[in-house]
Amino acid sequence: MAHAIFDEMGTPGREVRAAYRTLQSWLDETPLDILTLRREEAETFFRRIGITFAVYGEGGDPERIIPFDIIPRILEAAEWRQISDGLIQRVRALNAFIADIYGSQEILRAGIVPRDNVLLNDTYRYQMQGVAVPHNVYTHIAGIDMVRVGPEEFYVLEDNCRTPSGVSYMLENREITMRLFPDLFSRYNVAPVDHYCDELMRTLTSVAPRNCPGEPTVVVLTPGIYNSAYYEHSFLADQMGVELVEGPDLYVMDDVVYMRTTQGPKRVDVIYRRVDDDFLDPLTFKADSALGVAGLMNAYRAGNVNLTNAVGAGIADDKAIYTYVPKMVEFYLDEKPILKNVPTWRCAEKADAAYVLEHLAELVVKEVHGSGGYGMLVGPKAAKEELELFGARVKAYPEKYIAQPTLALSTCPTFVNEGVAPRHVDLRPFILSGKEIKVVPGGLTRVAMREGSLVVNSSQGGGTKDTWVLKD
């Protein structure tokens, strides 16, 4: 896994890669003060429409504007085909796995995934055992985090099968790029992303529950305005033309979900929920939850409502389960994986834990349930005290950690205070699964705005870029 850093535009002194040649010419002819002005305009736009993200633990106001880099990332059509085919294959396998572990558990019986890794996992929901879901789809909206380390080398870093966020930023990034740089945009043949919300609505209506009486009524269920992704919840509801609701807006009667409206009760058939499992139904999960709907799970089991993503889909987010996904592809689909995993050590296994403890300073160590860049050690960047503290944690609770090599994430040209400079990036494409599987061409490119940093998460100060997929 040792790689020189791959720059997607082309390293200084070498030939610029084909996809970036027009962009390079445009950068050469555009004065820096114009780029600075455009960046300020972008920030004003994001602030005006209220695109913020919560950054906790740094003091002050946690609600920040996500830094937006005005220079797009560009992917060739052939590169995207490889990614897209691999994503569709992976999500098919993940859905088959989730269906299996809440059904006949063949993969556990075959000994491919250890039984305890699933059944004793904090994200496993025994309440879903035997619940029939439409088309056997559990993760309707998946966000698969990917990194690139070479011209044709893409790796999956993690799977987000529960409630992946960030798609609103993907859409707003495109809108602002087209608005600020119409001349640059017109020089490229870029595949559109603005149909995402139409595709999302089609996906949600295609998974109507078995007892749906007619045209399904879809709603977006949000925990409320204090959630860090509330902007996205309201944005998606608005774009799909459906109601944004909170728990108290819904109630269950005779195992049917209704929404309170000014015209009286209205039946609800599909709930795109952005509320975690534990808070969905106080009669089934946390009894003190005020965010959910009492009786919702009974309506779900009865086939009178569908929840997207499915309850219990978070089992596939687990970073220890991630290590088995290539085997899932072979087990369920009888195919070779198109996309590779990053080599991973499972600290729950003694030999792996011993290796990790010996090489902490070289590795990235993550909590199996962690997200957002929290609970993570980047060994090469860590101080001695941090290494000792993390080592003690891994020794005490090895099953809570996995480790991976420090990848040389690819870089893209990024507009920073000093001018245009390379910064490390990753990519979160979004995959919609209903009757069909659709991948919108592009995704959310996250960029580490600090020089040398490999942490791209918005919650850790990372920014975002528009992602252009070129048409053939």
From TrEMBL:
Spans through the membrane: none
SUPFAM superfamilies found in the cross-reference section: Glutathione synthetase ATP-binding domain-like
Domain Circularly permuted ATP-grasp type: start-end pairs: 72-448
Name of the featured protein: Circularly permuted ATP-grasp type 2 domain-containing protein
Provenance organism: Parvibaculum lavamentivorans (strain DS-1 / DSM 13023 / NCIMB 13966)
Lineage: Bacteria, Pseudomonadati, Pseudomonadota, Alphaproteobacteria, Hyphomicrobiales
